[in-house]
Amino acid sequence: MRRRWAGRRPDPEGTPGVNEVDQLVDRARSGDHRAVARLVTIVESGESAAGGGRVREVASALAPHAGNAQVIGLTGSPGVGKSTTTTALVSAYRKEGKRVGVLAIDPSSPFSGGAILGDRVRMQEHALDPGVYIRSMSSRGHLGGLAATTPQAVRVLDGVGFDVILVETVGVGQAEVDIASLADTTLVLLAPGMGDGIQAVKAGILEIADVFVINKADRDGADHTMRDIRSMMALITREPHEWRQPIVKTVAHKAEGLEELLEAIEKHHSWLGEHGELQRRRTARASAEITAIALGLLRAKLDVTEELAGSVAAGELDPYAAADRLLGEG
To answer: Which pLDDT tens digit goes with each residue over 86-142?
Structure first.
């Protein structure tokens, strides 16, 4: 008689009777990139999120291990060198012996929903490094420069033991502010000759930057770009204890200015801890994640009937009353 493992799934690469997700987490924490990829795929696809399923199991299994990674976001207009800077940072952190995870968000086609995932191609020099995991994620039409499931993917990489997580946004320009609510430190990249100083004003980038990076600083106009940023920062009134964003010049493909950039990131991380801002940001991040999940579950459960919608369309019921009725409050 064939023995069945009630509530358990045998893993061909593990021990029968041990929960599959627990095995994946153990393997991922041991450096198995295939297991890391599988965990990210589960949360990215939202497998059975409404009814329980493995996406919940993943969240539960990773919760005790989360909260240790340093999350760094990189944003800026297309062409400023975000991928090159990300690659340079990976090299620098690997020299320090840190395990690095990269989430590169690529724009998706409005027609097919697919993405070229070119960032992963540009970071191939780290592809065989066992201490680096690179994942390209399609934005799937989500605005704000990130994919809808990026926060869950960050939680996976944090939970499986990555020391540093680099999140590179799409690069569409003026709407990329979601990264500020996800990262501990947000780097805003600009480049000379691209009008980025003006773009920063238009986009409100000044408010989300923790560190300004003028990349491609070997080009003409780098000093002018720096003066533009300093002029904008001078318009902001700050208390003595508030963080003042440093401006760092880099030439990422030559690794020039990288030490200064790492120093600026580390100073900001220390400031966050000293002023209680790190905990505040991470609590706000968790709050936003909880709200997003709750709204998703609510949408999955709500079923607006044709009769109810028809009553609103006919003027027999106002939409607020209809919403109350849908929620069982009317």
So the answer is: 999 999 999 999 999 999 987 654 444 444 454 555 566 777 889 999 998 876 544
pLDDT at residue 207 in the model? 76
Whole-angstrom Cα Rg for the chain: 23
Torsional sign, CA 91, 165, 229, 171: positive
Residue 212 in 3-state DSSP? strand
Question: How many CB atoms sit inside 10 A of residue 311's CB?
Answer: 17
**Which tokens go with 99?**
């395990």
Pick the more confident residue, 33 or 78. Answer: 33
End-to-end CA distance of the chain: 55
Q: How many residues does the chain have?
A: 330
Q: Up-side HSE of residue 23: CA atoms within 13 Å toward CB?
A: 14
C-alpha dist (Å) from residue 14 to 17, 92, 212: 9, 35, 46
Task: Find, among 215, 196, 225, the residue nearest to 254 by Cα.
Answer: 215
